[in-house]
Amino acid sequence: MQTHRTDQDVTVLADMAEIPGLGFLPVNAFVIHTEQPVVIDTGLSTDDKDFVSWLSGTIDPADVRWIWLTHPDRDHTGGLYDLLEAAPQARVVTTFLGVGILSTERPLPMDRVYLLNPGQQLDVGDRLLSGLRPPLFDNPATVGVVDHKTGALFSSDCFGSPLPTSDAALACDVHEVSPDDLRAGQLLWAGVDSPWVHNVDSAKFRASIDPIRTLDPSTIFSTHLPTARGLNQTLLEMLHETPDSPPFVGPDQAALEAMLAQFEPEMPVPARRLTPGTSSRSRQSPARASPTMIRLGRIRRLSLTRSRSLISPVPCSPDWRV
Questions:
Q1: Is the pLDDT of residue 291 over 70?
Q2: What is the DSSP letter of 193?
Q3: What separation in angstroms does the CA of 112 have from each of 78, 94, 170?
Q4: Domain 2-244 - what CATH class?
Q5: N or C: the chain end with fewer CB closer than 10 Å?
Q6: Helix, strand, or coil here: 39?
Q7: How many C-beta atoms surround the C-beta of residue 215 within 10 A?
């Protein structure tokens, strides 16, 4: 995980997730340093993440006034409830549908909710933020953010891309990614994240790109892409291509078994020695994993090692690094 601040009142909390067979997917959250500080999304939901502690390196969580949830998927809501406890004045900006989706796991307290639809605005003291429905999305509750003071667009999943290495996924700026890797990854992600794009009227879909073209964002902050500045035309051309790009078809069980067969399993974890008074239940060691899980773990380590040998960490410029 890395943290860097831009010159547009935004701090990027950059994380990533490895997707076997696809690459490394950036998973970003953001802080807009406004009069009433805004956190956009709250990161991954895996057990090894502590979003509030990470956020504390950027801002006192108690000062957060708004938590703008671009949509309630698990890679956006990881620190949501912990942040609500740490930020007693904060309210969650989402949609009616977003509240409903969250309620299937853990309901939000309704006095901490602020419902906002695409096209509506939120006054955060020194600027207005508007909701915008991005052209590509994987959740019907998706609402991106337009900062009217800086011209920045927070596009949620739209414009995302798995990237070849973990270092590329954590890069400060998407210019550090080769144009070929960027285009291929974005078209792939469009098919993975928004498969419906291949079944809709192409003309109507392309018309949905026009609001962003008119907005001409100063910077595009995507949840799943390093920060993009000065690339609007390139990114919009990619969107224009998506209806005609090849649909994504994931690996099936035979492909998974073929991949696993390329790696030998590690030695099994030895059983623990039973001590007097230990129950028979404790004979099942929680450390023991199935052969498949062991091999998957080995694949992950090999992949990470390989990626780090291909590219060394790229430091952010002084203006971007905190």
A1: no
A2: H
A3: 17, 11, 32
A4: alpha beta
A5: C
A6: strand
A7: 16
**Residue 300's Cα: distance from chain center in Å?**
20
Q: Exposed (0-12), middle (13-18) or buried (19+): which is 28, by Cβ within 10 Å? A: buried
Model confidence over 2-29: pLDDT tens digits? Answer: 899 998 899 999 999 998 888 999 999 9
Is the sign of the CA dihedral 197, 215, 159, 9 positive or negative?
A: negative
The answer to whether residues 37 and 58 touch, using CB atoms and an 8 Å cutoff, is no
Domain ranges for the chain, please list them: 2-244, 253-271+278-310
Specify whether the backbone of 288 is left (phi greater than 0), alpha (psi in -120 to 50) or beta.
Answer: beta
Q: Where are the alpha helices (DSSP H) in 38-157?
A: 51-56, 80-86, 96-103
- Say how far apart CA 154 and CA 156 lie, in whole Å: 6
For residues 49 and 78, the answer to whether their CB atoms sit within 8 Å is yes
